[in-house]
Amino acid sequence: MDTRVAIIGIILEKKDEVEKLNSILHEYSNRIIGRMGMPYSKKAINIITIVIDAPQDEINALSGKIGKLSGITSKVIYSNK
């Protein structure tokens, strides 16, 4: 199956959702190329970037699961390859 490289940008506003988020990311760990997270204390948020290589339906499923968590926003940017 064809895969695509994508970046998932995540803004975490509720720290009590971190465990749920990490659990979801663990489900897709075999597809994740890299992950970077940084706290932004001035706004009391955390910013997470996930780079993934997976079929588009898996990327959409991951982003959808993340988006259902309370206090978390996610958006996906796809490569053309």
Descriptive report:
Strand 2 and strand 3 form a beta hairpin. The chain has helices at residues 18-27, 56-67; strands spanning 4-12, 32-40, 45-54, 72-78. The two termini are 13 Å apart. With 81 residues, the protein is of the alpha+beta class. Strands 2-3-1-4 form a four-stranded antiparallel sheet, covered by helices on one side. The mean pLDDT is 95. The chain has a single domain (4-78), classed as ACT-like. Chain A, domain 2 (Alpha-Beta Plaits).
> Which strand order does the major sheet show?
2-3-1-4
Q: Please give the domain count.
A: 1
Helix and strand string, N-terminal first?
A: EHEEHE
C-alpha termini separation? 13 Å
Average pLDDT over all residues: 95
Q: Which CATH architecture would you pick?
A: 2-Layer Sandwich
- Basic shape: globular
Estimate percent helicity.
25-40%
Which structural class should the secondary elements be placed in? Answer: alpha+beta
Q: Supply the CATH class.
A: Alpha Beta
Rg computed from alpha carbons, rounded to a whole number of angstroms: 12 Å
The helix tally amounts to: 2
- List how many beta strands DSSP finds: 4
Could you tell me the CATH topology label: Alpha-Beta Plaits
CATH level-4 homologous superfamily? ACT-like. Chain A, domain 2
Q: Low-confidence parts, pLDDT < 50 over ≥5 residues?
A: none
Strand content: 35-45%
